[in-house]
Design a protein that fits this description.
The chain is mainly α. The protein is built from five helices and three strands. The chain has helices spanning 25-33, 35-44, 51-57, 63-75, 97-130; strands at residues 49-50, 79-84, 90-95. It has a three-stranded antiparallel sheet. A hairpin with a 5-residue loop joins strand 2 (79-84) and strand 3.
């Protein structure tokens, strides 16, 4: 392979036939793979939560980002939003059956992340020392 070689030679993981190359998989992975969605799903896997309970349970999430996240998850059919006619209105969120089917995968990813975060931190430090001008941090 020459230094000027830039051709990508990998094949898609999933074959979609005549459809678009990623078959919409990228869109789904973008949603369920973003950090806020993962954390919200992990929290809701333990049961129904009100908005403020979710906000307290997901460190660092702003009210705006939580609102966007739960709306997107609801749109995708992964959670339900129930508004109770009280003053002020109480809103509860719960996973749908499809959302629950995702929880074992999200938990496995969270456990893997927790188990390997130290080794990843070491690898990053070592890489950064060898590549100080990379701009990746």
């Amino acid at each position: 392979m020459s230094a000027g070689h830039t051709e990508v030679t990998t094949r898609p993981v999933v074959s979609c036939g005549d459809e678009h190359e990623d078959c919409g998989i990228r869109d789904v992975l973008d949603r369920i793979g973003d950090k806020w969605s993962v954390l919200v799903v992990v929290e809701l896997a333990q049961g129904m939560r009100r908005f403020r309970q979710l906000q307290r349970a997901v460190p660092g999430i702003s009210q705006r980002m939580l609102t966007l996240t739960v709306r997107r998850l609801e749109r995708d059919g992964l959670l339900t939003r129930t508004v109770h006619p009280t003053v002020p209105p109480q809103v509860e969120y719960a996973l749908t059956p499809m959302g629950h089917s995702l929880t074992h995968l999200v938990r496995a990813l969270a456990e893997w992340s927790s188990e390997h975060r130290g080794a990843i931190a070491v690898a990053r430090r070592e890489w950064d020392e060898l590549n100080p001008e990379s701009g990746i941090h």
